[in-house]
Specification:
CATH topology of the largest domain in chain A: Rossmann fold
Oligomer: homodimer
Largest sheet of chain A: 6 strands, parallel
Helix content of chain A: 40-55%
CATH architecture of the largest domain in chain A: 3-Layer(aba) Sandwich
Largest interface: A-B, 63 and 63 residues
Number of helices of chain A: 15
Number of strands of chain A: 6
CATH superfamily of the largest domain in chain A: Nicotinate-nucleotide-dimethylbenzimidazole phosphoribosyltransferase (CobT), large domain
Structural class of chain A: alpha/beta
Chain lengths: ~350, ~350
């Protein structure tokens, strides 16, 4: 499924992009006055292969949750059980991602791709009136990457293919845009390792303070990322190998979600550093997948900025968020919708009887 | 009316702000992880005097339109008639501000506070199912500020009081937040003059290319701003005098809208350079009015950044927009609503059964 998905990912449609550029020039506004929204609208026309492209509605947030063996190295002050507890919070509608999703009219799907502790919710009891839980646990958290590979190649593939499958299901159910979400105590450590592995950046440059660690924990975290990379020397041209060596199950699944969206030519709005580290893996599998990616926001984590630069993506929102869950992507969603809406609804100089300069 | 409005503007409520800070610390997210949204939510609690503050709904965009005698100096390639033509476009629902307002569920009110050419629409025929036109023309455009004061003090006051009155009407009709909009061919020239007058910045530092002028027009525009300031030497501690000397009718009315919102303790979301130049005037009338101001976006106009720094406001969105109309404010609105929604809807660690670090 991974190979056929990668093979289905194609470049943007140049004719649709040319039509969108031409239409932007006839709308009742000075040329270029919508800034970053104009090239975004052009790219979405290229992705859809039509001008205007469809409005990116409805939106679906997919939150992939996993735990991390590297938690044992003391890279975060939060107990591992919080991953499962927060899944309970997501399904009860009490987290920030739920508040933002309600506001944006987006659905929330939580996917257990690798939580280590028992979930407080029965998947069968979810989804009727609120968020849905998908049980797809590949293993109960990764292994500690400082001692051994976090995952086998087969486990990494299973997680990637879970993401591809979820993308397919959400698009089949009508989603016009997918938003990446994540939950996993300790998951900024594998994210930093992935960013370093795919971009060649130094661990100190891409490792951040996550949910807020002190100086001592931060220094240990940089050392853990450096040690894992030294031990495995992952090859950035082998994304499955990189994900297996130093990734997380939610990172791998997010790479799959991105590939699945790109293959179906549906835009995927990236959240923070977990998402963009996964996006590097997706781009390594299929460089044309970048055409489907929209950078929702610039996470406060330094690795996010390094990854976005590598992907040549400019984030839409930059408000110092470092929460994850999909919250940054949800804040950016109205900008994406607005960019497309302009092509649908704004009058031309001709039709409105407005003089040009 | 101006004096009583200014007198009604009071500092933020410290007790409500303390309560909001305390609540932010108990919600199920790492402390500070919502970045700029957290202090924004605290400030809005201080403005409302309650925690949580009301959701900023419904939203109302007020677009003040005027023309400019300085148009005769060749500061823009657009014909003056476009101001009136764009009002027709706003009322027909065909402009970018209309598309963004529909998306955000915001009402649109267009106020003719000083258009020079005949309007294509009868005010009485508007507002039933779409945008409303308010006829409040103080004069048919300003005078050319390079030759004489743009307005008399009485005209400037009439425009400011129009803005105060519109704010009062919108709040009385239920608006929970006001968004500033503007339309006026040539209006970035008086905006630059206002920013220079209130901040002391050099005209070259605050004058931009507006809707897109060439190098020759840009040089002329800087010269026009410099000449007007040299001629009038406006006193920044006399905001009515500054507005009369080098302002525009829409700038003066926007200053009034901001004062009216602040007096009623309703937040006002600022759009681009026209709005923030008016905000400088409002802050000169009443320094505590800044507590009600939210910077929607960072306009591509350099004067906007100088003005925001002077007001110590950080914009929420920075996407290179330079359209005006209220478009940048509308893109920022979901961020404001989201910041407040968190205080209403997110579970606490205690209530959700999530462990703390």
């Amino acid at each position: 499924m991974l190979e056929s998905t990668v093979a289905a990912i194609r470049p943007l449609d140049e004719a649709a992009m040319a039509a969108a550029r031409e239409l932007q020039g006839r709308l009742t506004k000075p040329a270029g006055s919508l800034g970053a929204l104009e090239p975004l609208s052009v790219r979405l026309a290229g992705l859809a292969g039509s001008c205007p492209p469809p409005l990116p509605e409805p939106a679906a947030v997919a939150i992939f949750a996993g735990d991390h063996g590297v938690h044992a190295q003391g890279v975060t002050p939060w107990p591992q059980e919080v991953t499962a507890q927060m899944i309970g919070n997501f399904l009860a509608g009490g987290a920030v991602v739920n508040a933002f999703a309600r506001q944006a009219g987006a659905s929330v799907t939580v996917v257990d791709v690798g939580v280590a502790t028992p979930l407080p919710v029965d998947p069968a009891a979810t989804g009727a009136a609120g968020p849905r839980l998908v049980a797809a646990n590949v293993r109960a958290g990764t292994r500690d990457m400082t001692g051994t590979a976090a995952l086998t190649r087969d486990e990494a593939r299973a997680a990637v293919e879970t993401g591809i499958r979820v993308a397919g299901e959400l698009v089949a159910a009508g989603a016009g845009i997918l938003l990446t979400g994540d939950m996993g105590i300790g998951n900024t450590t594998p994210a930093a390792a992935l960013v370093a592995a795919f971009t060649g950046a130094d661990p100190a440059e891409v490792t951040g303070r996550g949910t807020g660690v002190d100086d001592e924990t931060y220094a240990r975290k940089v050392g853990v990322v450096r040690a894992a990379l030294a031990r495995h020397a992952p090859d950035p041209t082998d994304p499955l190998g990189v994900l297996a060596a130093v990734g997380g199950l939610e990172h791998a699944a997010l790479a799959g979600l991105i590939l699945g969206a790109a293959a179906r030519r549906v835009p995927v709005l990236l959240d923070g550093v977990i998402a963009v580290s996964a996006a590097l893996a997706a781009a390594a599998f299929a460089p044309d997948a970048v055409g489907a990616m929209i950078a929702g926001h610039r996470s406060a984590e330094p690795g996010a900025t390094v990854a976005l630069r590598h992907l040549a993506l400019e984030p839409l929102v930059d408000l110092g968020l470092r929460l994850g869950e999909g919250t940054g992507a949800l804040l950016a969603l109205p900008v994406v919708t607005g960019a497309v809406r302009v092509l649908h609804e704004v009058a031309t100089f001709d039709s409105a009887g407005v003089a040009e300069k």
